[in-house]
Amino acid sequence: MCTPAKIRKLDEVVVNRIAAGEIIQRPANALKELIENSLDAKATNIQITAKEGGLKLLQIQDNGTGIRKEDMEIVCERFTTSKLQKFEDLGTLTTFGFRGEALASISHIALLTITTKTADEKCAYKASYINSKLKASPVPCAGNQGTIITIENLFYNVATRRKALSNPSEEFTKITEVVMRYAVHNSAVGFTLKKHGEPSSQVRTPYNSTKQNNIRLLYGNPVARELLEVELDDKDYKFKMHGLVTNPNYTNKRMVMLLFINNRLVDSASIRKMLEDVYSVYLPKKAHPWCYISLDINPQNIDVNVHPTKHEVRFLHEDTIVERIKFALDERLTGNSASRTFYLQA
Ligand code: ADP
Ligand code: MG
Q1: Which of 38, 141, 153, 231 is the 20 to 30 A CA-CA neighbour of 161?
Q2: CATH superfamily of 12-204
Q3: CA distance 313 to 310
Q4: Ligand 1, CB cutoff 6 Å, lining residues
């Protein structure tokens, strides 16, 4: 006879570590959260350094508002945030963060250090965190206004995850993709991405640039010179779209989609499929476009809570909205294919 195993309550540290692993799956996820925090803090310059694909070291420095010294004690605790107070606020939220889980999560699976200075303080303060808690009181130090978040040895205590992420160059590629995408979307903000110890940067965009200019800098002239601009302001379903998509002269082996919904980098299977459909009419088989699409949807129509990583966004009237975007793109591409025929014959 088998006796049932005794049910025990899991240790809190274990619970938190498991929860953290669901939110932060790889260095690129952590970086996305940190970039969004810097943007929420009104940074105009964001510098990122990575060592071993962000697994050994991932550092992000911004020139934003900084964090108050008195908040440093609780900033890495779960559900501590400066952005949300009551449930109803979720409907009108304009910041990226809202539930204060990113820093807490990271501190459960890495050593996290914050160096920060607000405009009011005379000096910066530095503190390290493990499992949401300060390791020691913040110490004064030199520093510019803004915040430096340093993450060391990500997943040091999650052996299986660490093993699964055994290829630092693959992780660095993912990091680079995240930075390039945010740099295109937030072209007013200057971004830099460097490998630790190397003088040259992998990504560098100037402050106060434009989307088109950053696309040229980061994705090259072949993309930049074939871009069509598509805009849509739909009063019925209360959404706006701004797209920069390649015309039928451009083809690529795989589709590149930069999708932002309410300024958040997301993925959407339905939008991806719609793009493939639209372009299938204009491009040869196995040829794909490059598409940047930014959607602004009434926050009340978005379910931001759908997944802890906030990667997959669902919204009200999704099918109709996607259909309307498809129509707008198709119209723009049709208009352009006439000039293409001309161009090819010339
Ligand atoms: P959330 O962004 O959901 O509030 P986080 O864990 O990402 O949760 O951050 C917790 C809090 O720490 C934020 O609400 C913000 O007040 C502060 N914070 C985090 N990063 C920065 C930053 N780069 N600059 C200024 N404040 C920051
Ligand atoms: Mg955040």
Answers
A1: 38
A2: Histidine kinase-like ATPase, C-terminal domain (3.30.565.10)
A3: 7
A4: 33, 37-38, 41, 62, 64-67, 75, 81-83, 97-104, 147
